[in-house]
Amino acid sequence: MNILPYSQLLDDKDRKFDILLCDQLNVVTRDIKTKELQTFTRNEFAFALKTYLIPVTPNSPHSALDPFQKLIKEKQAPYLSLMKKIFEEENAHMTTLSIYKRVIAEVEEQQTINSKPGTVVKVKHPSQSSLSRWWKRFKDAGFSHIDSLPKRKSKRNTTDSRSEQIMWEGYEKFMMGKITPSIAVGHAKYENWVNEMNDPTITIVSREKFRKHHHSFNDLDRAEASGNRAEVNKLMRTYKTRIKTDRVLTRIEADRLALNLRLIDDTTGEVTGKVALYIAIDCHSRYPIAVTVEFGEAEKAIGGVNLLRNIVIPASEQLDAFGIPIRIICDNGPGFNNETFAKTAESLKCELIYAPSNQPYKKPFVESFNKTIRSEFLESAELKVGNKIVHGVPGYKGKRYEGKNTNRNPTDETLKQAAAMTVDSFVQNLHDFLVHYVNQPHNELNGKTPQEVWEASCLEYPLIPCHYGLLKTSFHVFQGETTLNETGKFRFNKQDFYGEEVQNLYWQLKTGKASGNPKVSVLHDTQDCRAVTLAVTLPGDTHVTKIIAYNIDLVDEQVAISFEVANMNHSTPIRRSIYCGEAELIKRKRRKIRNGKQTQNMEQNSIDDRSTKDIIKQSNSSPHERQSKRTDPLLGTDLSQENQDDSHFRNKEGYEKW
Fold first, then answer.
1. Sequence-distant (≥ 6) Cβ neighbours of residue 540 within 8 angstroms
2. Which of 124, 148, 172 is at the close of a domain?
3. Residue 454 to residue 121: CA distance in whole angstroms
4. Is position 260 within any domain?
5. Pairing of strands 327-331, 16-22
6. What is the rounded CA–CA span in Å between residue 256 and residue 66?
7. CA angle, corner 390, sides to 385 and 396, nearest 5?
8. Domain that holds residue 185
9. How confident is the model over 286-310, as a mean pLDDT?
């Protein structure tokens, strides 16, 4: 048997030995564990092989070559075969420069002979050091080319996609809250969370990998602070590739997009407040599952609740994606970070994760869609207005700027003057754009459309049935108050409601009270007045009892109607029409009004320089007395009718002149 150096032996006690030397006289072995050396003669070694030593033939690590190893073998073969021939014939030292040049020249000659006539062969030859390294490994492997190939590189200890997804969910769950804990605390919570799943297929990542993942956001923070948008976009693309989802509705990102745009109300013709879009996008399919339009400068809780409602309701036949999300990533703005929105999400069994407002890259998918809706719809959409094609939404004034760049924002007066598009037209065009978007190939979905990815995921992982009729009480989060009566009916926000249990509730609350009807809390949805929920704590009970009451006039409506719309017909009470008839009037004689006392005005009194006492006295005198006797207040001169020609002496200036 041909025993080569570094071959292994196994004795009868399962000890392994290496053969360090094997020549014509002796064989030297070494115990792999104790490193002890033992020397045999050729005869002794042959006897040991027959009695207690067993040669171990190692399995070749290259029994199945991968494409990379096959390429290396094909590249090295012409050089090593020629060097082996020279070594066997001349027993030369094969790593010298002269041998290297000789091998290169003969390989070029051989390739020229094998090539087609008239073609020039250009080959990049290995360097002398590379060829020497190839030869050394080839010789040590017993001139076996396959065994001389480099060992297959071991793959990195990568985490499978499922464990990677769980790691991301754990990081967002424990490290992206309102208060960020330390890495050790966050990793410990993540580890306990995975252990509670009791799933052996999920691998818990190390704290070091958890730390690297956390520190990867530092680069985004620095790029965001520097204002280098190209670097931010590059890092956000990298960040998006790390987020793993295996189905739709596992991760929904929500955001509010404020626009420098005002519209015209279709009914009143007045200019609306500033337009804001509430957007929710599914990260697995890139499907904009809900987009709502709100008006006004302030960000309110009703905007977030309306967005949640549109997530569980299909927008139209063309935009048919809807369902209950497992997790929603949103910022901590007033529209999302409030008790009303949190209660609605809790009733839907939906987990909320808040990302800081100054770190938009932690919800990269919705931020990317915001740029798309700005550039492809608001700024460059082709809209037909009459016989003309308009590019972009009329009246849109570009991106809003925050902080130091507020002076670049257009004024409210500018937006009002630029308003040219009606609300209905804007909503319809926005809907058509979204239909166009979900049916176009997406470069992040391997050329598939969001609609195709959504439908494929629903086939592989069927969604939980979602019916708004069973979920509408989840949106009863706005609180009011009403008074019950013995009939079982009550009035709330100008609408009449009834319920089978309302009358019983009235008598339960009435028990023990002397007088007056009981008041209860009313939980309602401002956008759906078809039903409300009465919430009350009964006497002697500690938990809250909830009873659903239905709108008497709208109980059979299939589509939600807001209180505002329902009250439009009830804003002014209906009155009887005005009676119209004829009548004959008799003109009565009236006594002629006599002339009353006349008094001088303030200007005349100032000219006459009268005292207050004289003015009062004249005012109390009869007209006949004032006419028959008029005296100059300075000289007492009679200024009656016969002395009217001297009236210019009545003022002081005329008297002095005279």
1. none
2. 148
3. 52
4. yes
5. unpaired
6. 51
7. 105
8. 161-232
9. 89
